[in-house]
Structures are given as C-alpha cells and as structure tokens.
C-alpha cells in the first residue's frame, strides 16, 4: 500500500515539475530561454524557445526517481533513467552551443552501449545480438528527435506511448516499471500544456533525444523482464518509427545527405499541405492511441492474432503513405 501511494505521488510530482519548469522556460528573462530560429527544416516562422525538454526531464527525474525509491527497479530501469539524464544534459548543451553531429553521435553510441552491456538487456549474449540492440537504441534516440518538428507531436507520442507501457507493465505485476512509465507520460503532459498548438515552447534536444532513448531502453527492459513481447514497443511507437525510417531510407536512395535538415517527413508534408499543426497533432493522437490500444489488446493473445494485427498495421501504413505521397505530388 505504501508503494502504491509512492507511485501515485511520483506521477503527480512528474506532471507538476514538468509544468512548472516548462512555464519558467517560456519566460524571456529565464536563464533557460534558448530561442530556436527558423531554418530550412522548420515549420514555424517565429523565433520560439526550445528548452521545454528541461521541464520534461525535470518531471521524469523527479517522478522516476521517486518511483524507484518506492519500489524495486531493475538495473536496466536505473540505467535507462541515468542514460536519459546524461543525454538531456548533452542535448541542452547542443541547444545552446550547437555541438557537432559527430560529438552527439558518439555520446548516443556510448550511452546505448553502456545500457546494453551493463543491464540485463545484454547480459551474457553474443556480440551479434548486442550490436543490433545498440544500433536500434541509437536509431530510436535520433528518430524521436527527427520527429520533433510540429507542435504537440513529440509530446503527444510520449504521452500515448508511455501510457501504453505503463498499462502493460502494471497488468503484468511490475508496479515500479509502470510508475516510471506513467511518470514519463505525466511529465510529457505537463510540457504539452505549453506545446499544444499553437506552441509557446518547443521540446528541443534536451527532451526529444532522451525520450527517444527511454522509449527504446524501457522497451528492452520490458522485453527482458517478460512484461511484453519484442514487437510490442515497436508497434506502440510505430507512428514515429515508420515515418522516420521510411523518410531516411528514401532520402538515402535518392543520394541526399540524410544528416541535413529537411521538411519531407510525412507529418511535415501534411502541415505544409494545409492540415496545420493542430490538425496533424490530433490525427497523430488518434493513430498513436490506436497503435497502443491494439498492441495492448493482443499482447497476451495467440501468435496468429498478433501476426494478423501487425500485418494489418503494415498494410495501413503503406496505404496512408501512398495517399500522402500522391497528395504531395499534386500539391507540389
């Protein structure tokens, strides 16, 4: 009973801390009021502060830390939060100093490798299995950053995605993992109070990078703890994974410099075609909720049903991508 009270307090404090710190970052006289200037990738036209991730991570650190104290977290869970904090610090430095891509990538690789090797995710497994896990975590870390380009989008994905994690973990008796995931969702909700269209502040690298890492790392924690099957985190976060992965692959096939800023993600094209930030965010929320809901509905069912649902989602993504591509050609 004491642990449950601690978990509930953790979630409430996560929301409150994120809301309060984000509100402070919105103020022009704040030391954390770093302004994002519009560039060739931007969908906004006015300079806007980009340190909302500080608020998110304040909530994650406070809520997640309290949840760990109230319960019994695994080494993987502790390392996931520690890695996220380190990535947040580096992300904040990047928002302020514009670090080189090489430095950022080395940090991402180091954090991912440390998590996989030290935690249960890589305990005793062969190198061929560790390497894909590290590269997958690095990709998840970066793709979340790529998808943080429209008001309310990345914050909404965090709310829906980590709520699905929390429900799944709680349903399988892991109260600590559920509380940590719920705290992350609550922190993202506190930030969304200021980021939902029209946004007063953006998340920035200090928030999007660690959230991407947490999505991947906690997904691994749940798999290794038998809280959910390996496909579950992929389906839950598939709205971001599919958009970022398909866009990067297509740019690479066209011989473009994939590391350069652009505005060709599916969500970016929808905004440019007139759906607007609010319209894209609301449609994305529906998609995110459907992905998480369907994943929860079949995670404990037979393999045949799980394969059917995953296949249906694959066909749906292909259909939606085809429709957007066709509309974009006509728009252009």
Question: What is the topological layout?
Answer:
Blueprint: H1 2-26, E1 35-36, E2 48-49, H2 52-70, H3 75-97, H4 101-118, H5 127-146, H6 153-171, H7 175-195, H8 205-224, H9 231-236, H10 238-253, H11 266-298, H12 303-331
Antiparallel strand pairs: 1-2
Word description of this protein:
With 332 residues, the protein is an all-alpha fold. It starts with a helix and ends with a helix. 75% of the residues lie in helices and 1% in strands. The protein is globular, with a radius of gyration of 19 Å. The longest helix has 33 residues, at 266-298.
> Based on CA inertia axes, which overall geometry fits?
globular
Summarize the biggest pleated sheet: 2 strands, antiparallel
End-to-end Cα distance: 59 Å
Q: What is the total tally of β strands?
A: 2
Fraction of residues in helices? over 70%
Structural class computed from helices and strand pairing:
mainly alpha
Cα-atom radius of gyration:
19 Å
Order of helices and strands: HEEHHHHHHHHHHH
Q: Strand percentage, roughly?
A: under 5%
Figure out the total of helices: 12
Mean pLDDT: 92
Assembly state of the chains shown:
single chain
Give the strand order, joined by hyphens, for the main sheet.
Answer: 1-2
Low-confidence stretches: none
